[in-house]
Specification:
By secondary structure, the chain is mainly β. Helix content is 0%, strand content 48%.
């Protein structure tokens, strides 16, 4: 059984930065695809970024490219999401997710394990 625990959310001004963390328990962390999704009120959960092949490949949603950076530390079983130049439309609950397969990394329906979510609010 894999447990994921996110941290690092909060309230930030537009243009500001936040760093989210997701710590994973369970075996073979480096073999799991890890991803970040987000869900705003009244909207569907959407893909933000994914790290596969032990971190050798990282993919981003168009909305995240150039502003967000996902990294992973396989020794600490932890992934991070550095978010810069935040906009009000980035406001959402951010979820960490994992699965043992690498395909369809942007489909939230195919992830096996989820964290509890962390709120990110971008507002002046």
């Amino acid at each position: 059984q894999v447990q994921l625990v996110e941290s690092g959310g909060g309230l930030v001004l537009p243009g500001g930065s936040l760093r989210l963390s997701c710590a994973s328990s369970g075996p073979a962390f480096s073999n799991y695809a890890m991803a970040w999704f987000r869900q705003a009120p009244g909207k569907e959960r959407e893909f933000v970024a994914a790290s596969i092949w032990s971190g050798r490949n990282t993919y981003y949603a168009e909305s995240a490219k150039g502003r967000f950076t996902m990294s992973r530390d396989n020794d600490k079983n932890t992934v991070y999401l550095q978010m810069n130049s935040l906009k009000p439309e980035d406001t959402a609950v951010y979820y960490c997710a994992s699965k043992p397969a690498y395909t369809h990394y942007d489909d939230h329906n195919l992830y096996d394990y989820w964290g509890q979510g962390t709120q990110v609010t971008v507002s002046s």
